Amino acid sequence: MFASETLKTLSKVSKSPDTIFFFPALNKRTSCSTKRLRRAWCRGIDLMQKADESGTDRQEIVEIADMVSNGVCAVIVTFHPDPDVLENLSKVRQQVQGLVVVDNGSPQGAIHRLRSASHQVGFELIENGENLGIGAALNTGIRWAEANAFEWVILFDQDSAVTEGFMDAMLHAFENISKRDRLGILVPRYVDKRSGIPLPQDAAKSGGLETAMTSGSLMRVSSFREHGLFEEELFIDSVDSEYSLRLRSSGHLIEECRDAVLLHSPGHPTVLRLWGVRLFQTANYSAVRRYYQDRNRIWLTRKYWKIFPKFCLRLYRDSFKEHAKTILGEDQKWNKCYCAGLGILDGLRGHMGKFDRNRD
């Protein structure tokens, strides 16, 4: 709690340069190292100055410091990451107290880059050795955060990029939201990394959002102790939707922080045009992704249709639209439709886990 102690002391002393002479006394009353304390002191002075300039109540800054001092750990899952992903990792690390990267079976070249970056940037690297799925990888990172006494986790896709002041805005919003006691997940405002266009999010009639994307989701570690970890048998796709519905069914809300912007890359979209006229955009997901999407929709519907019937109906409406776009505008359309059909069959049979093309 050294950061909040420092800021509380700062809030009581004057803003004159003489306040630096309080540092030795403060150092004697704390158990943290001089280097760590000095960082907190400088950060405290910066926060207090910004509070005075913006007219923010200093007590609000102290409350945010209590949250930060408990620690925010970012969890990022990598899978065959491009070299520019390392820049994203560095940007995230600068805004959080801890970062754990869980790799899901990337090739050796990518692993070597991640190992080197883990020392340079300063993060924990956990190598799964194979693709265990997004749910299992996220759970590994969350367990690491809990074991290292972090109170908060924020999840990111490897391709997502944080903007300046991202975490400060997220923490401030979490602390000051009107229904904080019911808040389960806080998400940022998403902007398409390629086009710069904001990505829409569906609102729930009961308040907040219907679901949260994995990337950018800020949650308390205690939420996973209370409601369980991510559903690993889904493997890929709908993992975030399932957890969102699980929290909402327990009375929690999903809210958006408009002041925090996350640059996100959804799929590999292409635009179909006819005589130069834009008809529609298609996501171009792989055949295997189409398998998981259709299989997991059925799994979700079976579990939540009584609680969220309209949401489940929209899943199938969206599925129909996606398949129509696949047939009209994508390559390898029949392979994708074949895999989607397998996904539907497996969803009806309850065959979950990793997709195996060679099974009987």
Q: Could you give the order of the helices and strands?
A: HHHHEHEHEHEEHEEHHEEEHHH
- Please give the share of residues in helix: 40-55%
Number of helices, counting only DSSP H or I runs of 4 residues or more: 13
The main sheet orders its strands as 3-2-1-4-7
Mean pLDDT: 84
In angstroms, what is the radius of gyration?
23 Å
**Strand percentage:** 15-25%
Helix/strand/pairing class, anyone? alpha/beta
User: Rough shape?
Assistant: globular
Low-confidence stretches: 1-41
- Tell me the number of strands: 10
Q: Outline the biggest β-sheet.
A: 5 strands, mixed
Span of the ends, CA to CA: 56 Å
Could you please describe the fold and organization of this structure?
- The structure is a single chain.
- The chain has 360 residues and is an alpha/beta fold.
- Helices cover 48% and strands 17% of the residues.
- The chain contains 13 helices and ten strands.
- Strands 3-2-1-4-7 form a five-stranded mixed sheet, sandwiched between helices.
- α4 packs across α8, α11 packs antiparallel against α12 and α11 packs parallel to α13.
- The longest helix is centred in the first third of the chain and has 21 residues.
- It is globular.
Q: Can you tag this structure with a few keywords?
A:
5-stranded mixed β-sheet; globular; single chain; 13 helices; 48% helix; disordered N terminus; alpha/beta; 360 residues; 3-stranded mixed β-sheet; 17% strand
